[in-house]
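re the bet — no i am not wrong, look at it urself. input seq straight from the record:
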Amino acid sequence: MIQFTHVFKRYPGGFDALRNVNLQIQAGEMVFITGHSGAGKSTLLKLITAIERPTRGEAVVNGKNLLRLPRRRIPYFRREIGVVFQDHKLLFDRTVYDNVALPLIVTGADPHDIPRRVRAALEMVGLLSKEKMYPITLSGGEQQRVGIARAVVNKPPLLLADEPTGNLDSKLSDEILDLFLDFHHHGVTVLIATHDGHLINRARQRVIELKQAELVSDSGAAA
């Protein structure tokens, strides 16, 4: 699913965001990526989604070598990845239904199939009754659920989340974690970048720690 071999990411000016990262994540795993602010968590996710390219090394995601992936193929590559953001990135002038439908419209899904798929995603996150509402009228936890429904409406095999509970209280954080655990139990590969120790301890899944751009520990690494 994901294979990083001696991956470096250096930004202009000589700043190393990642140094010599070796990482293998199998299909169906759930992995937490932790570390202090600036450790490289978001950069790692950006490489996986091809928002950024490695400076050196080999990064393979879903069988695609990201250094060799033509720019025109990136939108198709991203159809296999769902992304959940800390700040939701919802369109506040569109309804909940329209926000979740957007990825299907962009990827050219059958218009007759879109309502069923959108409502299935909303039901999964417990928001089917609010499909006609606008995000601004929802709580922070509900907005995050809309973001999750939008991320999974295409049924991607890989789901990434960048600090998905950073703006939520502990009760809502637990509810969001339960959604990710459910996706994992249904075979989706889930990667969550977070510094929330409570979530990590409660999930009891593999944990990767980054420190100063390097991978310093991996609870799932072979002895």
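see?? Residues 50 and 66 are 7 Å apart (CA to CA). told u. also The chain has a mean pLDDT of 94. so pay up
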